[in-house]
Amino acid sequence: MRAHDPAKRATDFLSCSYGFRPGRSAHDALHALRNGFMEQGLRWVVDVDISKYFDTIDHAHLRRFLDQRVTDGIVRRMIDKWLKAGVLEKGVLRRTTGGTPQGGVISPLLANIYLHYVLDEWFEQVARPRLKGRCQLARYADDAVIAFEDHLSGKRLLNVLDKRLGRYGLQLHPTKTRFVDFRFKRPGGRHPATAGTTFNFLGFTHVWGQSRKGKNVVRQITAKDRYARALASVTEWCRLNLHRPFRAQHAHLSRVIRGHCAYYGISGNGRRIRWYHHQITRIWKKWLARRGRHSNLPWSRFRATVMRPSP
């Protein structure tokens, strides 16, 4: 890989890219996108979904992109070996001409490089200068959202985006890629709020709401599918580990809650976080009741027991 001093490493990727980069996180992407809606007047959204992205990366195009970045022969030969490794399906090795190696540590970086040239540079250098009004791209790996101030600019970009990706072997998902009207709509007004005024990005549903002071704000709340998946995972864990000591279960579930809150515990999502904690407690009590010891324990006493610090 090319030698860089720390001050220049940030130029390897553009500011709109947040995934798999040191010093950047999904929270940074969410914060930047929210600021775009709140401060720049962005109101139209292209919710980008690339079909089977990691499986359809074209190796020929990827190698041409790597030629612009990697000059070390040893590194290039190592990358080529990763790409030629193939895919193991049901004990059968299948050679592929596309995609990144499954489970390979290099896969996220290669995928990031691919979209840097295919999407990021094209948007910033070619598409943005031709569009009216302000616009913003926020991308984390293959999860991307493009927000616009002007309605027609958003439509124009969506019309050419599929052609741009198609040149490099990628395809937009026909139903998951959407053009969203994200303008604030007052409930009961001439344009009542509908499900179409929301979109998901990085596990959060983005929706307009009002702050306690009555100000219109963009709220980022836990997406329903992520919420349901998290509760289903806890239910399954409780079922399989019902035999473990009470305190051992408490310690594990406490770590699960802390991990969930570390990601989803952002401003405006407090209600979903509190409800998640409540549901975890309810699920655990339900499964503990099957052991008999906690079947008749009042809810207040059970919660007091749960709230004790875990070892």
Automatic annotation (TrEMBL):
InterPro entries (alphabetical): DNA/RNA_pol_sf (IPR043502), GrpII_Intron_Splice-Mob/Def (IPR051083), RT_dom (IPR000477)
GO terms of molecular function: RNA-directed DNA polymerase activity
Pfam families attached to this UniProt entry: RVT_1
Keywords, sorted A to Z: Nucleotidyltransferase, RNA-directed DNA polymerase, Transferase
Claim: DNA-binding is one of the keywords in the record: no
Residues covered by the Reverse transcriptase domain: 1-206
Superkingdom, taxonomy of origin: Bacteria
PROSITE patterns reported for this sequence: RT_POL
Family of this protein: Belongs to the bacterial reverse transcriptase family.
PANTHER family for the chain: NUCLEAR INTRON MATURASE 1, MITOCHONDRIAL-RELATED (PTHR34047), PROTEIN YKFC (PTHR34047:SF8)
Protein name: RNA-directed DNA polymerase
Organism listed in the record: Bradyrhizobium barranii subsp. barranii
